[in-house]
Amino acid sequence: MSTLIYLSSSPYSSTTIKEALDLALVFGTFGQDIRLAVTGEALALLIDNQTPNARQGKHLHKLLDGLEFYDIEQIYIKQDEIPAATSLWSGVTALDSEEWLNMLNQHQYIYRF
Length: 113
Fold this sequence. Notes:
This is Sulfur relay (Sulfurtransferase) complex TusC component, DsrF/TusC family. Keywords: Transferase. GO terms for molecular function: transferase activity. InterPro entries: DsrEFH-like (IPR027396), Sulphur_relay_DsrE/F-like (IPR003787), Sulphur_relay_TusC/DsrF (IPR017462). By secondary structure, the chain is an alpha/beta fold. Helix content is 20%, strand content 21%. It is built from 2 helices and 5 strands. It has a 5-stranded parallel sheet with strand order 4-3-2-1-5. The longest helix is centred in the N-terminal third of the chain and has 14 residues, at 16-29. The two termini are 20 Å apart.
């Protein structure tokens, strides 16, 4: 059984992305096969060298390095959504449109945030 946590909300407009990452960690704690997909405004989570202010909340980017301890090693993004001249977290796999659709079809459960 594989589960995909699909992130598309801004990581700084609400606690939605934090809750999604917490859910992924809980699944990972219990040995579930978890993968993350990041699109749209959620891509801000993956940008290196972030310095969110107090109003924006916690620095969620720092949580990414801990995902490997929960065996969460697959983070997918759409190739055509990669921001130009932006350094992204190194643990992502960029997929073209066809690969993206195939990846979505491979998961038994998808939770979208």
